Structure formats: C-alpha cells, structure tokens
Amino acid sequence: xxxxxxxxxxxxxxxxxxxxxxxxxxxxxxxxxxxxxxxxxxxxxxxxxxxxxxxxxxxxxxxxxxxxxxxxxxxxxxxxxxxxxxxxxxxxxxxxxxxxxxxxxxxxxxxxxxxxxxxxxxxxxxxxxxxxxxxxxxxxxxxxxxxxxxxxxxxxxxxxxxxxxxxxxxxxxxxxxxxxxxxxxxxxxxxxxxxxxxxxxxxxxxxxxxxxxxxxxxxxxxxxxxxxxxxxxxxxxxxxxxxxxxxxxxxxxxxxxxxxxxxxxxxxxxxxxxxxxxxxxxxxxxxxxxxxxxxxxxxxxxxxxxxxxxxxxxxxxxxxxxxxxxxxxxxxxxxxxxxxxxxxxxxxxxxxxxxxxxxxxxxxxxxxxxxxxxxxxxxxxxxxxxxxxxxxxxxxxxxxxxxxxxxxxxxxxxxxxxxxxxxxxxxxxxxxxxxxxxxxxxxxxxxxxxxxxxxxxxxxxxxxxxxxxxxxxxxxxxxxxxxxxxxxxxxxxxxxxxxxxxxxxxxxxxxxxxxxxxxxxxxxxxxxxxxxxxxxxxxxxxxxxxxxxxxxxxxxxxxxxxxxxxxx
Length: 568
Description:
Blueprint: H1 2-17, H2 22-37, E1 41-48, E2 53-61, H3 75-83, E3 87-90, H4 99-102, E4 105-113, E5 120-129, H5 137-182, H6 186-201, E6 205-212, E7 217-224, E8 232-233, H7 237-245, E9 249-251, H8 264-269, E10 270-280, E11 283-293, H9 301-371, H10 375-402, E12 411-413, H11 414-428, E13 433-439, E14 446-448, H12 451-468, E15 473-482, E16 494-501, H13 531-541, E17 545-551, E18 555-563
Parallel strand pairs: 13-15
Antiparallel strand pairs: 1-2, 1-5, 3-4, 4-5, 6-7, 6-11, 7-8, 9-10, 10-11, 12-14, 15-16, 16-18, 17-18
C-alpha cells in the first residue's frame, strides 16, 4: 500500500503530464496493483459511449488469458462501469460474462473510475483463480486508491488533449476573424473560412450556403469536397433541415429520406456532419456545414463544443462586418443628400429663370396663333406652344426636386396606396410583367406623407422596372416592419418597402449616380434622369432612407425605410 501511495505522490501525475505517457502510466499502475493484491487477473476499461468503442483497455493475466474490453452491461467490469458502483462476487454469476473466462476466474472485485468527460465511463477490476480465498478489506482499499489515481491521470490526459485542441481552435478562430475582417473579396473569404474549418475539424466536406428566406431556399456559395451543388429547398437534406429549424444540428449519417435533387451521389459518401445556422444581426443569412466521409471516426463532444463556438463567432464577426458596411453605406448616403441639396438649389434657380423665358415664348406664340391668318404659320406657333408646355412640365419636375418646403402632415396606410396603385399598374404595364404585392402580416403600415407624392414615387419605380424588363419579368412590392437600419435617425420602428424587379440590372459603376438629377441609364431620348431624383427627394422629406442593390442580368431591388407613424 505504501508503495502504491508513494507512486501516486511522486510519479503517476508527473508521468501523465508527459505527452503520450498515458498507456505507460496505466501499465505501471496495473503492475503495482497486482503486486499489492496478489491478483492473477487485472483489467481496466474506459468506454466511449458516444462512439460505442473502447477509449482505453489494459489488462494483465498470469496465464496469458486474453481479457476482452468490458462493454457496458457485459461481465463484472461492464456492469460496474454502467451502474457506476462497486461490484463483487463470483465471475460466473454476472450476466453475459464470457464463458471461457468463467471457467478459470473465481472471485472478482470491480470499482468505477470517475471521469469528468460525459461520454466516457470506466471501471477497474481484479480477479483470482477459482479456489482461492476472497479479496480482503486491504485489497478493497488498495483497489480504491488505484481507482482514484487512474481517475486523476485519465482526467489530466483528457484535459491535456482538450487544451492541445483548444490551442489549435483558438488559433483557427483568430485566423477566421482576420479572414472575415480583412479579405475584401467575398469568394476568397468564403473559401478561406471553409478551408479553416476543414483543417481544424479534419472534415473532408464543407459547404457554406446563402439563405433566401422569402424563397425558402439555400444557395451554395462555397464548398469543398463536393460535386457542384444545386439549390437546396428548406426541409431537404442537412442544410435544408437546419435552415427550416434555425438551430445547430448533428447528423450521424446523411438523412437519405430527404436528399435534395442533385445530391444523390454525395449523400452516399457523407457520414457524420455538423450543420449550423449563421444569423447576422438576428436574421438567418447563411448555413454552414462540415462533414466526414463514411467509415471515418465520428465527431466527438469536444468537436461539437468547438464547432458551436465557431459558428457563434462567425455570426458575430459577420454582424460586425455588416454594421461597418452599413455605416460606410449611410455615410455615402449622407454625402449624396448634401450633393443633391446643392444641385437642387442650383437647378431651382435655373428652372425659375427658364420658366420666365418660357412664359415669354408662350405669350408670343399665343399672340402669333391669334393674329396670323396663314394656317401653316398658325401650325408653327401651335408646335412652339406644345413644346413650351413640355418644357414647363420639365421645369416643374426640377422645381419639385429643389423644394425645401415639402410638408409631411397626413398619416396614410402604405399598403392601401399600393393596392390602389396595383389596379392601375396591372392595366398599364405590359402583360408579360407579373406584379406581386407581399407583406409580413403586421399591418397597418402607417407613414406620414402626401398621398400624391407617394403615388408618384411608386409609379416612378414601377416605370423604371418596366424599362428594365423589355421581355417581361416579375415586379414585386414587399412591405414589412423592422428596426431602423444603422445610420438612420429614428427612435421607433420603420416601414420597409422593397421594390424588386427581375430585369437587366444596373452596372455597378453607375449605382452611385442613379439618384443624381439628369443622370439616366436609359438610351438617349428615353429618359430625363429626374424620376429617381424625385423618388429620393420624396423619401428624404418623409424622414426616410433609400438603398439600391442590383446585379446585372439578375435584377434590382430598391429598399425604402420610412419611420412608422401612429394613428394618434
């Protein structure tokens, strides 16, 4: 007993801290135990219940008899680890005991080994040949000391493994954060993220998908190890299931009853997987998945812990990145407003002077029509008068842009205005353009504004969409309530109006200028460049903001944020 106790104090813990010394330390412990108890058979088994395999198994037998690992519930050792309490008696009396061992082993004594890792259970046992005397209290106490020592050294080894992995994971986290915050190319950033995850978790497959909530689909934007992936509907496969439930998922194997179209071959190869939703500022934006091939060692509980940490950090970093992008975007919006104000003031001055000139021309043209007796000359004056009226309409639009006294007093329901506008648009827009009105069901959508100005705004946006879809398409008006975006000076909630078309889009180098007066992306003679300027002025005067996102040959979305008004 003294020798065993001295080993605990001087050697076992020190030896265990040396990398790779666990098995060597356990062997020494078993030989010391044999020496102190005079047992012919000694065995220790630690079982991984998550993987259903032995984490550790060692034994000594005097006659060279093989002692197989004690599965939970099988043999004295298995019963002891499963019930986590001492076991004592004849070997042959225990359920499912190995018959070849029952013939030679008589008295057995087993004690559980306490291990802090939840998926590991263990026990250590000693046995004597049939016909020998039972174990004494001294043997019981000796085995108890051995059990405590083994519990300590196995726990230290597990902690050591965890710390080694933690160092790698923390290095990976720093790499991940640096990648997201410094790599400006999105495609490269997404690829780097998947490579980091694949290396750290030894995963052969990785996929990052962009979530489209309104369409309930996931668009793969970066992947490793897979064939070119297709769109994934919500509820289908691993990613679709995760997105539908918006919570982290662990799959032991691919759910073959939910394989999305085009993933049949990959599904046959994929084994266990982690899939997690990546929420950006509280909204589901991405789904991240890593997986190993079949027949490879499954992910452990430690892997789960760190993957959980990874996707949470990724959500946070993406949110920070989005806030920074929004700050930059709204700084540009503020600069644009200041520029529009100065341009509007200049345009207003020119328009007033131009109006005076037009009025003189119109006066002379009117006199010419009334006094001329030649019908051909009268027609010339009539053409002059018509062109003057057109010029007057143009200057009225310019004056509208420059007005600073636009008063917003009335409270209107934006949905009701849209429904009325839809009736007119369905009659005036080409039949090959489908018009859709959607909302989040949280109405009424009340804003303060002048109905005529809001209608003009709606028709201007619809007209732009029509011109962008010469061969037809889909025009969607979408209403919802939301928190104010970063950079908007509003204390309450806002009404968000999205106007989305499936047209030819706007070149990236032109999106910064589309709200400027007289700037147009249309062909010469097909636009004045004042429609979107009027829209911008109307939104600004209502205390709102407008943003645009466009992808060439895919479409354009105008997003308008207007402070919500109350009925009182």
